[in-house]
Specification:
Elements: H1 4-12, E1 20-22, H2 31-39, E2 43-46, H3 51-54, H4 60-63, E3 64-65, H5 69-82, H6 91-112
Parallel strand pairs: 1-2, 2-3
Length: 120
């Protein structure tokens, strides 16, 4: 039994060759996909809901499969014989991250310098 942090560490162990498998039939925007991308964990996920939108378009076909037993089996055979690259996040997520960081920096600045505009 592992908590989320332990599971990510286990999957991310250097040289382990581990791959996370997410065979969901329905999923909107699973945090597990983002954890794998962030931690550099290769994964295969069902191509359902918002999952493809979280992944860089060039990586979707290599990291997702149509939710069908045969398609999952084919994807696993490909991973076992050819390997799998770690997926990159969709580019809009990188922009959101940058905006989120800037917003927090502004909050900290405003707290320490009330009423003073931040120099850019």
């Amino acid at each position: 039994d592992m908590d989320s942090r332990q599971a990510v560490q286990y999957l991310a162990e250097e040289g382990s060759g581990r791959v996370a498998i997410m065979p969901s039939l329905i999923d909107n925007s699973p945090f597990t996909v983002m954890e794998c991308i962030t931690a550099g964990i290769p994964f295969l996920a069902s191509r359902v809901g918002g999952i493809p939108e979280l992944i860089h378009p060039d990586d979707v076909s290599n990291t997702t499969f149509i939710p069908d037993v045969r398609r999952l089996a084919d994807a696993l055979v490909t991973v076992l014989t050819s390997g799998i690259k770690v997926a990159r996040p969709a580019s809009y997520l990188i922009n959101y991250k940058d905006a989120w960081v800037r917003w927090h920096q502004q909050i900290v600045y405003d707290h320490h310098h009330p009423g003073q505009p931040q120099q850019t």
